[in-house]
């Protein structure tokens, strides 16, 4: 498996990975109404291409299959971070995170931030993040609990 930067040809796989992960993994911690608001049926590929191309987005490429992805914004914020349902718990997330942290250090950043879902909170804690605040956010009219977390590098 290779960790590399996002390429425009990855957009459909990345968007579908996000959608399927939220629908099949995050459903453990959120209601079906919340999951449907978070990952609605209509997938906007152009929006995903814009988001992934405008940040440092790393993908885990397993011989053409995208096993996961994570994005780093220039200010140290980790926007999206998802692992495919079939690659949960096998080190893919850790490898993506390591690439993100290495890039952050190369950029001279000393601080990373993330809004982690209930599902992702334990992963980020294992990566050394501390919880700053539990928060309630809204998406397409549904309320969600997530956690503002940070890590000093």
Can you give a write-up of this model?
- The chain is an alpha+beta fold.
- The protein is built from five helices and seven strands; from the N terminus they run βαααβββαβαββ.
- A seven-stranded mixed sheet has the order 1-2-3-4-5-7-6.
- Helix 1 packs across helix 3.
- The longest helix has 15 residues, at 92-106.
- The chain is globular and about 40 Å long.
Quick structural summary:
The protein is α+β, with helices and mostly antiparallel strands. The chain has a seven-stranded mixed β-sheet with strand order 1-2-3-4-5-7-6. Strand 4, helix 4 and strand 5 form a beta-alpha-beta unit.
Along the chain, the helix and strand elements come as EHHHEEEHEHEE
- Helix/sheet category: alpha+beta
Rg of Cα set? 15 Å
Shape type: globular
Q: Give the helix tally.
A: 5
Percentage of residues in strands: 35-45%
Largest sheet properties: 7 strands, mixed
Major sheet: arrangement of strands: 1-2-3-4-5-7-6
- N-C termini distance: 26 Å
Poorly predicted segments: none
Helix content: 25-40%
Number of separate strands:
7
């Amino acid at each position: 498996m290779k960790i590399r930067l996002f390429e425009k040809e990855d957009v459909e796989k990345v968007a579908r990975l996000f959608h399927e992960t939220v629908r099949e993994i995050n459903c453990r911690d959120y209601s079906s109404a919340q999951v449907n608001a978070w990952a609605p049926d209509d997938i906007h590929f152009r929006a995903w291409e814009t988001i992934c191309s405008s940040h440092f987005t790393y993908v885990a490429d397993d011989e053409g299959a995208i096993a996961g992805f994570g994005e780093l914004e220039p200010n140290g914020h980790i926007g999206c971070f998802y692992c495919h349902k079939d690659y949960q718990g096998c080190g893919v997330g850790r490898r993506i995170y390591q690439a993100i942290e290495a890039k952050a250090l190369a950029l001279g950043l000393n601080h990373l931030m993330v809004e982690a879902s209930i599902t992702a909170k334990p992963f980020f804690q294992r990566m050394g993040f501390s919880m700053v605040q539990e928060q309630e956010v809204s998406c397409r009219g549904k309320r969600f609990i997530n956690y503002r977390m940070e890590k000093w590098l």
